[in-house]
Write a structure and sequence with these properties.
CATH class: Alpha Beta
CATH architecture: Roll
Number of strands: 8
Helix content: 25-40%
Order of helices and strands: HHHEEEEHEEEE
Structural class: alpha+beta
């Protein structure tokens, strides 16, 4: 397994965000994939039974939805910033808007303010209809510029 910094560099140089996702075991465990298309970074959490938190509805576990939102925000911060080190989370706020049904779930991360060392990312998660989000998040990350050897 190659170090994450090397995987980040290679993915950015090759323009292949999927290669970056493959370097992070947590994303693979949750069935999260990320694609970059049409100027957007879209995360997808493929449905699987272990993601259910309330079997009587059934509804996705809030932690799984939160993981998709946070992971998509991290990927957006990583992909759009100059860093080759995983961003460090300062804070994340998640608003759960409705229950997540047992289907694939998507998220889109957008940098709302990008600086040299701090990046703000807004993320929205939905299922079949992007106009009906199931959750939203706002995250703030510390990033290390690629030309800065100190962390």
């Amino acid at each position: 397994m190659i170090p994450v910094a090397d995987a980040i560099r290679a993915a950015k140089e090759g323009g292949d965000v999927a290669a970056l996702v493959e370097a992070i075991p947590y994303l693979r465990l949750l069935g999260i994939s990320v694609t970059a298309a049409s100027g957007e970074l879209i995360g997808k959490m493929a449905y699987s039974d272990p993601l259910i938190g309330n079997a009587s509805l059934p509804a996705l576990h809030g932690g799984a939805i939160g993981a998709l939102l946070e992971s998509t925000a991290i990927m957006a911060a990583l992909w759009e910033s100059e860093t080759v080190v995983l961003p460090k989370i300062v804070t994340i706020t998640i608003d759960f808007l409705r229950s997540g049904r047992p289907v694939d779930t998507f998220a889109c991360g957008v940098i709302t303010k990008g600086g040299r060392r701090v990046v703000n990312v807004g993320v929205e998660a939905w299922q079949e209809d992007r106009a009906r989000p199931i959750a939203r998040a706002h995250a703030i990350f510390l990033v290390q510029p690629a030309d800065d050897p100190a962390g």
